[in-house]
Specification:
The complex is a heterodimer of chains A (94) and B (477). By secondary structure, chain A is an alpha/beta fold. Chain A contains 2 helices and 4 strands, in the order ββαβαβ. In chain B, helix 8 crosses helix 9, helix 9 crosses helix 12 (268-283) and helix 14 (351-363) packs across helix 16. Classes of the chains: A alpha/beta (94), B alpha+beta (477).
Chain lengths: 94, 477
Amino acid sequence: MTERPILLDPTAELEPAKRARQARPARLDGLTVGILDISKPRGDVFLDRLDERLSARGIAVKRYRKPTVARPAPAALTRQIVDEVDVVIEGLAD
Amino acid sequence: MAEAADGLLVFVKRECPTCVLVEPVLAALAQDGAHIVTQDDPAFPAGVQRVIDDRALERSFAHDIEIVPTLLRLAGGREVGRAIGWHREEWRALSGLGELGTGLPAERPGCGSLTQEPGIAEQLALRHCRVRFQARAIELGEQEDAVEAAFARGWSDGLPVVPPTRERVYRMLQGASRQPEDVLGLAPPNLVPCTVEKVAINAVMAGCRPDYFPVVLAVIEAALTHEFCMHGLLCTTMFSGPMVIVNGPVRRAIGMNWGVNALGQGNRANATIGRALQLVIRNVGGGLPGGIDRATLGNPGKYTFCFAEDEDDTLWEPLSVEHGLPRGASAVTLFAGDGVQPMVDQKSRTPDSLARSFAACLTVAHHPKLALGGDAFLIVSPEHYRVFRAAGWSKQRTKDEINRLLLRPGAELMSGVGGMAEGLPARFRDQMVPKFRQGGLKIVRAGGQAGLFSAIVTGWAAAGDYGSSPVTKEVRA
């Protein structure tokens, strides 16, 4: 196991040392939800169902698909998702 | 094996020829009860029982060993005698063994202790808590790239920074004699007490060498004075940022540039000292572009703007001497400067003609019809300086002549004159108006030997008590 590098904080230390994750929204009403299909076989079965249930609640849904499960999403696709939706649902594995 | 609190200790390493030379002496001392502390090879000296393996260098560090062989006498756990290198009479006196080293040369210098190898002293100092940092330690992920981590945390001015590891910060602190916890002033805009240690961290990130650190500390002290008004300078919508001019012996000692391309890229000290100041304001003070820094356009000097004055000719006194420091003192002067405005005159061969050219170019500073706003620096190149030098014009006379040439009838500067709404208020109508406040025009020398060009650096339009004045601080070790 490699040693974790340690840096000394150059700032006034007004922010927490660990960067917090962005808080989850309390409600999805009024937000646009992205669903990213990573192209894993049969992932679409589960994601289609999520799409149905969200849409039934009147929540706007946009669908995206990675060209291949084997590689990271192309930068253009990542940018498009960031521009178009407020939250994203992504299945990371089987 | 632990050494006794009383008796003799000898520090050696096999790769030192002097230590090898005195191997029979080491055997005799061990026979007499001494301990031999070996830095690199526990099998050295051969056949000796009382060898202490110090490959971790803990004992060598604890006893501040700089040279091997070193012979120490301890009494009650405290050092009472030390012989450095092989010196027969000293070793005989310290050991009380009158026949020691018979047949060996009378003396031989030693070699460097392994504790003195590059990087080792810092690691040992940190491991043995000779330095305790007040700054928070930020632990990165195993696979996290330190340079990218600094970007991600917002510590960078947009260029990569050197990761501020404890070893690097320790080395930086060794470059000056100030205590890490000393407070240099309140860093704007958040008025955070700015410690020597925080400055060291940011100086590491800027790329400074430890021998620049005393200069960086003087720069920060100057920046945090009331007179310099760093807070307002940071907040302004105008172009300006701190410009640093360095005077005195430290310029040469740390290899600064005042010659070819003095205001440009390529010199580490020039580049990183100016950058360290900006990083301190950003990181300690919290002054972020788009946050408190509201510059409409800014200028490239806000990454770094630092150079040294050419002091090779003594007719014109250096800026630091004009500001009251003795010749021979090292100093920094900070000025709230805009970018560089070129001044070209390749034909003037008399000081009168050249002064007129300087005045004509200075007239347009900020706007031809504005006056008494900002100060200005004239950075005179060697070829232009030669014209004044040959005529015997002092620096003060040159400034006086230029200021006189800059006087303009207020009526010509009124709003609306020349079809331009910009201009001075009506109360100046019947006066001769100077371009700069009293003492507001400054002159320094810098630049390569070829080129009949000089530079004008105009200043923030809030000069003086209302805003910022140039501030000079002496550089102390």
